[in-house]
Amino acid sequence: MVSSTRLSGGAADATGRILAESLSRQLGVNVLVENVGGAGGAIGTTRVKGSEPNGYTVGLGHMGTLAAAVPLTPRLQYDPRSDFRYLGLVSSSPNVLYVSKDHPSKNLQEFIAYSKASKTGPTMGHGGQGAASHVACVRFFKQIGVAAKLVAYKGLGQTITDVLSNRIDGGCDLLASVAPHAKSGELRVLAIAAKERSPILPDAMTAAEAGLPQFETGTWTGLFVPKSTPEAVVSRLEQATAAALADSSVRDRLTALGASLPEPEQRDGAYMQHLIETELDKWTGILGQR
Fold first, then answer.
1. Distance CA 44, CA 60 (A)
2. Tens digits of residue pLDDT in 106-136
3. Coil, helix or strand for 245?
4. How far apart are CA 221 and CA 192, in angstroms?
5. pLDDT at residue 6 in the model
């Protein structure tokens, strides 16, 4: 079972379902996706920690749940360094800053001016404390020196609904989550927090092009199991994950979302464990202990 950490409609949900189909073929069993929302993915991650270590529950986590959530959430119910065995990275996607198509800000500089002129600061939606969308917004507003009002939602769908109804100004979610709404014209992407433009949204400028080069942040995702899972089971799941990522249909579908696949050397548990330790140090330094 793959336990996703976002509600239906977000990038983690789509990534989990794409992987589940291929893993079912690799393992010869049905792999189901259960979306466990809330607390930026921490509830689902905690559930994986407490599950039977038999290989039947696999977590899909990301930079937020497995790194940035630590300095942001003092009472986190798990320790990414010691509570899990990792299977490898599966995707990455840059964050984007977006508003509704009717928002008065037509570009990033106008939004920065809008934010600084507001007496209460803009209101931005995110997926919960420590979620990638939360971390990106915290970092963005820290860089421009504005105290924004950050509102937690259980899923991207609820966030988008309130953005489109003008209850809130926007958000800082993943390109892979926001792209379909931007393509339809419902949302306006003000900046992609990456070095290069995305081929799926070629007209959206990078943050550097839009005048804020220091705003560069993205989110990786990867699979994990409870710490006590037997080595043979971990190895089998690790191999199946690598084989799924080598599947051209998986690659094409993830790329179409705006996600990138990890390099071959990044598709194992040892690499992911090292990355998490590095990311924990990085985000603790950026966000500080809270």
1. 9
2. 999 999 999 999 988 899 999 887 788 888 9
3. helix
4. 18
5. 35
**Integer Cα distance of 60 and 221 in angstroms:** 7
The H-or-E segment that residue 150 falls in is strand 149-152
HEC readout, 81-123: CCCEEEEEEEEEEEEEEEEECCCCCCCHHHHHHHHHHCCCCCE
Alpha carbons within 13 A on the beta-carbon side of 169:
20
CB atoms within 10 A of CB 89: 23
Quote the pTM value: 0.81
Question: How crowded is residue 244: how many other Cβ atoms within 10 Å of its Cβ?
Answer: 25
Closest by CA to 120, choosing from 93, 151, 89, 94, is 151
Task: State pLDDT tens for residues 62-76.
Answer: 888 899 888 888 888
Q: Is 257 exposed, middle or buried (0-12, 13-18, 19+ CB in 10 A)?
A: buried
Give me the helix-helix angle, 248-257 and 11-27, nearest 10°. Answer: 180
Band of residue 188 on the pLDDT scale cut at 50, 70, 90: very high
Whose structure tokens read 């071959």?
Answer: 264
Query: Could you tell me if 30 and 17 are in contact, meaning their C-beta atoms sit under 8 angstroms apart?
Result: no
